[in-house]
Every structure is written in structure tokens, then in C-alpha cells.
Design goal:
228 residues, alpha+beta, Alpha-Beta Plaits, Rossmann fold, 2 domains, three-stranded antiparallel β-sheet, two-stranded antiparallel ribbon, 10 helices, 15% strand, elongated
Length: 228
């Protein structure tokens, strides 16, 4: 018989007043309980106590993020809106087409924030000098961050871009790779180059890199540097 471990999690209601969430006439909490029958929800002040299996709690938290984001952006929320978001059909509700576009890349390609968390990341950059994005691989952290940086460069909000990431070896040895330091490190920096090539024409990108307007460097070489 499989042993099930239950966990308790505190979800804090931020960015909106808790009464807008708990006292909604649309009964947000009731619909959440119907969706996640294996979880226990209990309201307490400005937080929601959730008990159940960890992976199910994580799914519920993603939906809670979407619901709160929608309430923040809209004065009214009805049961149809809630059900759409809870059932994963709320993308069109969460953000308009124009709001999702970060910038226009090569051949006027629309570089967009596709998911709710990517949209929130873009909005966080507009409000803060420093933003940390944490999440699993493949969720668009690097790509979205580079798009925001390129947009800032094009609008002359910043003078240059420094992109850095750790050069993590996967069995090979950097010293035995052919070429100079740049050639050895390029394979590790390739995801950054790939993203940049979608946003800046090749010749212009090469010129930016040559002039130091865009710099791509491994994290180990950033220690001790002074950046203006």
C-alpha cells in the first residue's frame, strides 16, 4: 500500500485586500474546494491554509496566483471567470494581446510573455531595479529576461547589457576544448546567443558584442568587477 504524506502550506493573499478574495460573491473558495477535493482549505486573516499532497498544493497555488492577478486587474469577477481560470482556460482573461508583447524582434516577430508568471516577471522589471526569477528549467526565465533587457537597450533606458551564467561542465573539461577562452565558453553561452538572435539582426548583434554594448560572460569571471 502506497504511503501518502500530507503537508501544510500557508498561501499569503498579496497585492489585493483579503476581503476581495474571501468575501467574493462569486465564491472563489467554494469553487477551489470543488476542483481540489483532496485538499483542505482554511482561511485565516490574510492567508489561506492548505493541507494535502505537495504536488497537488503546487497546482492549487498556480491557480491562486492567476485568480489574484485577475482580481487585481479587474474590478469585477464572476463565477464564469473563476471557472475558466480554475480549469486552465483563463489565458485570454488574464492579459490582452498588446500587453503580452515585450518587443518586436527580427522580421517584426512578436516576442511575448506567454504565461502568467512571465507576464508578472515583465511587470516586476517595470517596478523594481533588481528582480529574481526562480523556477524549473524550460519556464522562460532566461528568454523573458533577455527580451526585457533588449527592450531596455532599444528604448535607451540602459546603455549596455551584460548577460552572465555559470559555465557548468557536464563531464567534459573546458581546458581541452579547442580555441581561445571565448571559443571554449561559447557552447555554455549558446542559449543566450540563440535568444539574442531572435531579437536583434545578426550584423547589429555582432557589432553590439564587438563594441561591448552587449557582453556575454561566465559568472566566474564577474567577481570583483565594478559596473556602472
Amino acid at each position: 500500500m502506497k504511503e501518502i504524506f500530507l503537508e501544510k502550506f500557508e498561501y499569503f493573499i498579496k497585492e489585493i485586500h483579503p476581503s476581495d478574495f474571501f468575501n467574493s460573491e462569486s465564491e472563489i473558495l467554494l469553487n477551489l474546494k470543488k476542483k481540489f477535493k483532496d485538499l483542505k482549505f482554511k482561511e485565516r486573516g490574510d492567508k489561506l491554509l492548505i493541507e494535502g499532497e505537495n504536488d497537488v498544493i503546487l497546482k492549487a497555488c498556480v491557480i491562486l496566483d492567476s485568480l489574484i492577478y485577475f482580481i487585481k486587474k479587474n474590478e469585477n469577477i464572476n463565477e464564469a471567470n473563476i471557472l475558466d481560470i480554475i480549469n486552465g482556460k483563463g489565458d485570454k482573461l488574464l492579459q490582452s494581446e498588446n500587453g503580452r508583447v515585450i518587443l518586436f524582434g527580427v522580421n517584426k516577430k512578436k516576442i511575448k510573455a506567454h504565461t502568467l508568471n512571465q507576464i508578472k516577471l515583465v511587470e516586476s522589471f517595470d517596478k523594481n531595479d533588481m528582480v529574481f526569477a526562480v523556477g524549473p528549467a524550460g519556464t522562460g526565465k532566461t528568454y523573458t529576461g533577455i527580451a526585457i533587457a533588449v527592450k531596455a537597450l532599444k528604448s535607451k533606458t540602459v546603455k549596455r547589457i551584460i548577460l552572465t551564467r555559470p559555465a557548468v561542465e557536464a563531464g567534459e573539461n573546458l581546458g581541452f576544448l579547442p580555441g581561445d577562452l571565448k571559443d571554449k565558453l561559447d557552447p555554455y553561452m549558446q542559449p543566450l546567443y540563440d535568444a539574442l538572435k531572435e531579437m536583434i539582426p545578426t550584423e547589429k548583434l555582432e557589432d553590439y558584442i564587438k563594441r561591448g554594448i552587449i557582453e556575454i560572460a561566465p559568472l566566474a569571471y564577474m567577481r570583483g568587477r565594478t559596473l556602472d
